[in-house]
Write a structure and sequence with these properties.
heterodimer; A: mainly alpha; MetI-like fold; 2 domains; B: alpha+beta; Dipeptide-binding Protein, domain 1; Dipeptide-binding Protein, domain 3; six-stranded mixed β-sheet; five-stranded antiparallel β-sheet; 22% strand; Peptide ABC transporter substrate-binding protein (chain B); transport (chain B); Peptide/Ni-bd (chain B); SBP_5_dom (chain B); SBP_5 (chain B)
Amino acid sequence: MAKYLLKRIFYLLLTLFIVITVTFFLMKLLPGTPLQNQQKLSPAQQHLILKQYGLTKPVWQQYLIYVGGVFQGNFGTSFQFSDQPVSYLISSRIGPSLLLGIQAMILGVIPGILVGALGAIKKNTWVDTTTTIVSILGISIPSFVLAVLLQYFVGLKLHLLPIADWGGFAYTVLPTIALAASPFADTARFTRTEMVDVLNSDYIELATAKGLSKWGVIYHHALRNSLIPVVTIIGPLAVNIMTGSMVIENIFSIPGIGEQFVKSILTNDYPTIMAVTIVYSVMLMVVLLITDIVYGIIDPRIRISGKSN
Amino acid sequence: MKFNKALALGAVSGVSVLLLAACGSKSSNKSLATDQTLNWVETSNLPTMDPSKSTDIVSATALNNVDEGLLRIGQGSKLRPGVAKNYKVSKDGKTWTFNLRHSKWSNGDPVTAKDFVYGWQRTVKPKTASQYAYLYDHVKNFSAVNKGKMAPSKLGIKADGDYKVVVTLSRPQSYFKYIVGAPAFFPQNQKVVEKYGSKFAANSKQAVYNGPFTMTGWNGTNNTWTLAKNKNYWDAKATKLKAVKFQVIKDQGTWLSQYQSGKVDELITDGTQYKQFKNSKQMHVRNSASTFYLEMNQRKGFFKNNLNARKAVNMAINNGQLTKDILADGSQTPKGLVPTNLAKKGNKDFADAAYVKSGTEYNLAQAKTYWKKALKQSGKSSMTLNLLSDDTPAGKKTAEFLQSQLNKLPGLKVTTSNVPFNVRLSRSTKGQFDMVVSGWIADFPDAISFSSLFTSNNAYNRGQWKNSSYDTDVKNAEGKDANNTNARWNDLVNAEKTIMQQQGVVPLYQQTQSQMLKSKVHGVQYFPTGAQWDFSHAYLSK
């Protein structure tokens, strides 16, 4: 297991290195500068400012300096925030993003599994129809539309929860719901389909024939076996939440990194774009690693180094 | 010594002394609300609180409320006293003497002339890489100091004792009084700046303030901050507000909901919202100091020396329709190149004084006549011209509209290119265009900020329209008439009339800012240039 983990972490670092390199050179192709007032600056003054940011050096030197910095945790200086290290920008803004992401993941996946399972058990009844309709709605309504609807009805009309801003649990509720809708729907649909398959399989019939209780069969045999494919979609769901957060954070004025990412793209603030890309890549790779480990826990057949001896 | 000389010189030739009457807050019969907390919105994050490094409106607004330069700009571009009680200008217009009041920083230190000297030198020296240092271009030795060829101490500013600042300019600049109100000219507390080094003003704690408010709650990257009343401010009794709470809202729909729910007190409307609320009593439409105009490439080719062609283009464009129906965001039809409400002499607005009817007139029949003459002059029967514009929504709308209008001229086919801002700048600077939609925002309330753009060799004169009488007028305004208010005004009015009569550019629209403001909010000052808002005399009624 340890050997497997080490190998995975090595590949993770390698992937990260490739991501950094590709993003760096792609960003260099964009016409971004730290000049905020380009129109009114003379070429000499422009050169002076670019020099301060180390942008007058050849690109390959900039690349080496950048990579060297990244491995020491130095992501450079933001173009939008003068003198603000990007590492500080990210560390001071990642909290709200992580909190929302984790809340949305929990709110999406766990009820999703329950609702999906319920739909499968009560197949072809009104319960099944209702859960299917709810999950189809969850998939087809984009998160930003849901966000605006929630703001309008729950926030503005009913005064139940804050419309936007940040500061306490109440402020996280609406954005979490908006973010969780699509993962919830995905998980519910997936679980239902898998569960229906599993419930029709021979071993379930065998278990029932052995006289196990209905819920015992469902919990020990059906649910556990239908969860394996569900775990597979957790990676893509995490991506879904990350990209969704860029829009949701903007709509709810949340001081997270998703919102900052949008702004840095619009202002060509590439040290920030690079750093956020790296952070997102790391988060995604870690989620994928965890899913692979979770596989083994749920299904002994997938364990990496089994106790076959 | 220098100061004494200037005074002596002044005594002989008659010093122009401008005493500033303290502008007391107007007593109002409206009763004050018990909670004097104003909730304001910005659409971008606050990037810095370092006066030397501020380039954007968010930080300019914050700085203008928490700090104070020699003078403050008030409503209608009237000057108010700042740290300087009064000032004198020598007869030759090159020596400015500011007498400072005894005032304090928020940490209790006295604000002295040395703070100004230090702040100005810090902004100009190359290491700081200030993006607004160019505002110093009239100050003696600016360019040598800015390029690092001369020590910062050689910059034309000296402290004469603790409460007198003497500024030496390399050439007279009558509008220098407005410029010293900008954040780049604020005093800086050397002790505090050096204590925090590169972290100075990177958050609200690592800074010190000398304005009507102090700042709290800004960690450098977050979306909220608060301006709290500064009890150490010299005119603190005039500050009615307890606090101004700022919140960053980037989504226009969210902003509207927050405004409607009463969480915030103002809303800068976009086009759709402007249409919805334009008849509301809470709607305030204000001129901004920004004009968008069409430049025609006169380096060579069709528009060069072809006045008929330029007149035809101007008269074929219905500016009224562009602002009312196409942009429909409150933008206004321009009277000329220099925006309305930018500069005034007495009660006369510059844009009215220099108004030339034909310069912005729409007359399609007349346009067609001019166009036929223009084609004849160039010996062509048809013409394809490219129109370069920004890829922003307004840029695209403008380009499409102009295309449809200009295609009505016989034998003209207009194609459009919508490109990002940077690309537009670089192409237009290199002259790679036939027509380009450009825009300019004035940095200070004087017509010269626009007029200086279109002299023959100016880099911003992208169409390279050239006119010797225009050049002479602008040169006189900056040179021989720089100290003569009337002559200078007439020079600039004449220059503006020339560029309009010769149609050096075609003014398209003047940007405005349309704001919904809760009716309980009073006394917030709006500036069309530089820092946008001043809350020092604002208050909330019941």
